[in-house]
């Protein structure tokens, strides 16, 4: 396993991390989830990413159970706060002081740990003053309940403002968690340069585009049963990619993967890790063999010819419009 520094900090994380967004408590039940977590550990993965909203808190509980008995100091556990959980009461969402301080306590209880290594704002909250949010995060850090602070899907302007407040409050703001893969590169124009300047790393989700970049979705054929395209959450991120034109372009990546001695999934992950602002690529997996195979992409360096070949094969199927960054942050209260 390769390890990389998280932002401008001394914390190292595994270049491949294991996330349980649409698996634990949804596609994968507890027993199989534990087998998958053990496979991740055996493959050298030490970084685990979850969120309180995943499966309405069940994913955190399952991950906590699966990691029970492991040496805590050898793990990096990430979770997030923002979206509604529980009964979806009027304060059960957002980045208010109330919601943050109550949510961290619930997350720690479910994860069976005294602290998380990284506590992330799952989206930007347009309805809470940023000062209130960052002051609450500062209290979480100073209480020892989180070691570092990060965010997810924030714009360059939001990142700058949050980072400035974090510096004033003397708390370590070290990461952003965006969607990023060879088909979806919207963070490249502005987010990545901003983060390099500020000392913030990317911890990216969907490095294989919810499975599209594995080649398992074939043009002109129905989607496989049990795939992300059939999951109500995962399908949101995949439906626009399931066109015959895009899927045909993806099939052209197979010879490039073969030439590198990689699977198409490993090729996609290695492509993401070629970006030096990426600290870790979050991979999922409902079967242990998937996790083992994904982890093998760590440390693989793609040739310049392969990188150029990926660009040529995908062509205009790649989304590069940086103006869409931040659109995932809700424009209205969710409860």
Automatic annotation (TrEMBL):
This protein's UniProt keywords: NADP, Oxidoreductase
**Source taxon at top rank:** Bacteria
Task: Give the source species.
Answer: Microlunatus phosphovorus (strain ATCC 700054 / DSM 10555 / JCM 9379 / NBRC 101784 / NCIMB 13414 / VKM Ac-1990 / NM-1)
A Pfam family matched in the record? Aldo_ket_red
The answer to whether keyword ATP-binding applies is no
- Entry-linked InterPro entries: AKR, K_chnl_volt-dep_bsu_KCNAB-rel, NAD(P)_OxRdtase_dom_sf, NADP_OxRdtase_dom
Protein name listed in UniProt: Aldo/keto reductase
Q: Name one GO molecular function term.
A: oxidoreductase activity
Q: Which family does it belong to?
A: Belongs to the shaker potassium channel beta subunit family.
One GO cellular component, as annotated: cytosol
User: Boundaries of each NADP-dependent oxidoreductase domain copy?
Assistant: 16-313
